[in-house]
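Quick illustration for those who missed Monday's session on complexes.
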Amino acid sequence: MQSSIGKGFQLFPFLIILFVSLCLSHVCWIQVRANSVLNSTDESRSTDPFLLSTSLPVDTAFKFPSALPEIPSGNSSFGKGRIDLGGLEVIQVSISTSTSKQVWRTYEGMGLTIYQPINLPPSFFTLGFYAQLNNRQLFGWVLAARDVSGDSLRPPVGYIAVMNTTSMIIKQDGPAYFWQPLCPKEYQAVGLYVTTSPQEPSLSQESISCVRSDLTEKSEADTWVWGTEELTISSMRPANRGTEATGVYTGTFSCQRPNSSPPPPPLFCLNNTRFNLSSMPSEDQTSLLFKTYSPWVYLHPDEDFLPSSVEWFFSNGALLFQKGNESNPVPIQPDGSNLPQGGSDDGLFWLDYPADKDAKERVKRGDLGNTKVYLHIKPMFGGTFTDIVVWIFYPFNGNARLKFLFVKGLWLGDVGEHIGDWEHVTLRISNFNGELWRAYLSEHSAGTLVEACDLEFQGGNKPVSYSSLHGHAMFSRPGMVLQGEGGNGLRNDMARSDKFFDAGASYAMVAGPGMVEPPWLNYFRKWGPFVQHDIQKTFDGIAKTLPGFFRKKFRKFVNQIPRELFQEDGPTGPKVKRSWTADE
Ligand SMILES: *[C@@H]1O[C@H](CO)[C@@H](O)[C@H](O)[C@H]1NC(C)=O
Ligand SMILES: *[C@@H]1O[C@H](CO)[C@@H](O)[C@H](O)[C@H]1NC(C)=O
Ligand SMILES: *[C@@H]1O[C@H](CO)[C@@H](O)[C@H](O)[C@H]1NC(C)=O
Ligand SMILES: *[C@@H]1O[C@H](CO)[C@@H](O)[C@H](O)[C@H]1NC(C)=O
Ligand SMILES: *[C@@H]1O[C@H](CO)[C@@H](O)[C@H](O)[C@H]1NC(C)=O
Ligand SMILES: *[C@@H]1O[C@H](CO)[C@@H](O)[C@H](O)[C@H]1NC(C)=O
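Prediction with 2-acetamido-2-deoxy-beta-D-glucopyranose bound:
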């Protein structure tokens, strides 16, 4: 090795090139990491460029840091491994070397591997295969089904050749052939079969099953998994989702060709025709799940506006104002029992701080020691999953900061400030086995869905989340995320600090099947007053300080930022948000 470098080789330039490329790759890696936070299907899971070895991340199955707790058995079917969808019993097969067979692999782009579920329990059938990127640890599942009615499942009558990779110029061990079951009348296909030979799959035991139409629902692409110009692999999800929707996520994938004519018939998800909450965890089981997965929330070291409990906010001076009677605000009972209940956000009532300056400053800053989170328990995907929505209250949302050209951080006066800030993290947990599958982190008016294998854990199986400076948007990684284009935009800064809390340390379950809701939850008006910030004036003030050339650029840039990002309006409470009954 050494001698070959020495021969006819200038070591100095070589070292410089090595150094520069090391730096570049490091910088790139950091950038990709930061950008990726907003894209859960992202490229960020790229492997370390220096570890291009034969063992890929996907060859190792993801494992939670600690063993999952034993869930005490209840009288519901939660945690029992099988759920009856009404004539069709389903199990969740976690993809691993013992439950599945690797069928095909490509190294193109981030690389993809396709798995076939095998070793199913007697009388269970595959509904489709599983596909995953190579640069992430193996973490996925598909449902397999057993016919308990006698006509819920049927073998296909043949297969449609959807796609093959024979003529594609990609790095692959050999070509793959994607097949869609051709189902008998009144039956639908849920997933695809993949082979490495051009021969159509046999219609025997090994084949994948078709499902009776009424036991299926419309599905759509969920996340982009892998693709080239000629083909896109996406995971599938029910098209209708929410607390009342019966569509069941199956873990299978679809394969689309941009110019396929005619396209193959659509793939379906399953339908829980007996959706009656009998697979949901009991309150005790939910508490145990929450104690297992309750997130840590890290606030930025410079954060002045900390969270608190709702009770603390009410007891420390928050006042209820009524339109037309502004001079007579009333103190709020600790449980909110004197807040107007129900109705709509009609502007007749709002909350605000006390007039006294010191009292006002104190309320604004919250109280970490008195922080409490509020849990909303939601059935998802026809009751096959449970969403534990963790609501966090901050009495105040601080002002926004811009990054513009060489100006790294420009505080925007009072722009972005508002009273009463509700944020949430959602834990999506399997009702088959109590395992955390994904977490959703709220970020301003949107958010990111992160798979458990991509989360950072601390103290067992508790995910870590980072609350951005002032805006309190939740992210799964520390660092800076810009909302904007070309390196300019609104900053979200996240970092570890000694300001943090364990959401499991103090919580209350406030909503879910059979729970009594506290009165403040049914207060549907704003948690802060409407304050008109003069955004244009703030920007004009900043523009004046800039040299002419940058001034124009600055105006152009700020005019592109959607005004709703500045959230000047006091927000409404959790129950008024669309996600209360919908999917995130
Ligand atoms: C997320 O990443 C995928 C794959 O690179 C890309 O196609 C998609 O446009 C990205 N979405 C966003 C919102 O950046
Ligand atoms: C489970 O048992 C409890 C107490 O025995 C009962 O109150 C509850 O209704 C039962 N739940 C179901 C889904 O049967
Ligand atoms: C709910 O559905 C399950 C099977 O899906 C069934 O065994 C149970 O009897 C149903 N419960 C009620 C109250 O309808
Ligand atoms: C593979 O795909 C090509 C078109 O891309 C098609 O002409 C050929 O028939 C396919 N082969 C099989 C076995 O499906
Ligand atoms: C799904 O099941 C429900 C309940 O049985 C039924 O009302 C609905 O029509 C089914 N959906 C489809 C697409 O058949
Ligand atoms: C204004 O508020 C005060 C304090 O709650 C109340 O006593 C009074 O009746 C209100 N007046 C009107 C006109 O609603």
